[in-house]
Amino acid sequence: MGNRGMEELIPLVNRLQDALSSVGQSCSLHLPQIAVVGGQSAGKSSVLENFVGRDFLPRGSGIVTRRPLILQLLSATMEYGEFLHCKGKKFTDFDEIRKEIETETRRLTGSNKGISPVPINLRIHSPHVLNLTLVDLPGITKVPVGDQPADIEYQIRDMIMQYICKENCLILAVTPANTDLANSDALKLAKDVDPQGQRTIGVITKLDLMDEGTDAREILENRLLPLRRGYIGVVNRSQKDIDGKKDIKAALLAEEKFFLSHPAYKHMAERMGTPYLQRTLNQ
């Protein structure tokens, strides 16, 4: 259903990258990667968790992603995760995966809110995923909090730039629908490195949280700030859903129902939602 040649190439290059990193070499073979870029609380983590169908990312207020997470999704019959820094250990409990990400983040960044450009590599094998390699990056922030360095905004920008300036990096620019698109940090950064919009896909989250009587139809129809690859709308679980452990399968059904029944979006419902986004990225 996806891109056949790519499907066969990804596992091969993954093996190559592992072999090289185990002897301390970096792999200069730049495979297409998808960098997930957006402001804090834009819904990046939820988008990634919906791809996997599991809760496995640390959550909280403020800056939660403090190191790049290179997430390799591999279609397989068994469901488990493995980290490059825990050779040979298979994690079948996704809560443990979250704890391991938190522990490994703290190991390099301490318990304050500092950041580090050294990535964490996580590979998830699952029957529910399509082969994709995604990079989850820290949310763009403006104001340092706690013990964060005063130049945290520039540190994060630099880190994001290292990934998105590569020609073969697809930029997933995540912006919440209840903010002004013209001020989207993700779209601004994407425009800096991809002025023609050749490799940027807009993802609009929080469509269900827009003020009554307003909608994002103009954006999603690609008329407001046009991108060559357009925009895909998604509806993630709310914080209340997450706290109440709402199942992701149920959330995806609710998302589908939202688009099919919404007067402003039902004419394009088949081009909206997480499963459509996943297929688009895979291709």
UniProtKB/TrEMBL annotation:
Annotated localization: Cytoplasm
Gene Ontology annotations of biological process type: receptor internalization; synaptic vesicle budding from presynaptic endocytic zone membrane
EC number: 3.6.5.5
SUPFAM superfamilies, per the entry: P-loop containing nucleoside triphosphate hydrolases (SSF52540)
Pfam families noted in UniProt: Dynamin_M, Dynamin_N
Molecular function GO terms recorded: GTP binding; GTPase activity; microtubule binding
Annotated Dynamin-type G domain residues: 28-283
Cited Gene3D superfamilies: P-loop containing nucleotide triphosphate hydrolases
GO cellular component: cytoplasm; microtubule; plasma membrane; presynapse
Primary site of residence: cytoplasm
Alphabetic keyword roster: Cytoplasm, Endocytosis, GTP-binding, Hydrolase, Microtubule, Motor protein, Nucleotide-binding
Record InterPro entries: Dynamin, Dynamin_GTPase, Dynamin_GTPase_CS, Dynamin_N, Dynamin_stalk, G_DYNAMIN_dom, P-loop_NTPase
PANTHER family for the chain: DYNAMIN (PTHR11566)
Family note: Belongs to the TRAFAC class dynamin-like GTPase superfamily. Dynamin/Fzo/YdjA family.
Protein name in UniProt: Interferon-induced GTP-binding protein Mx
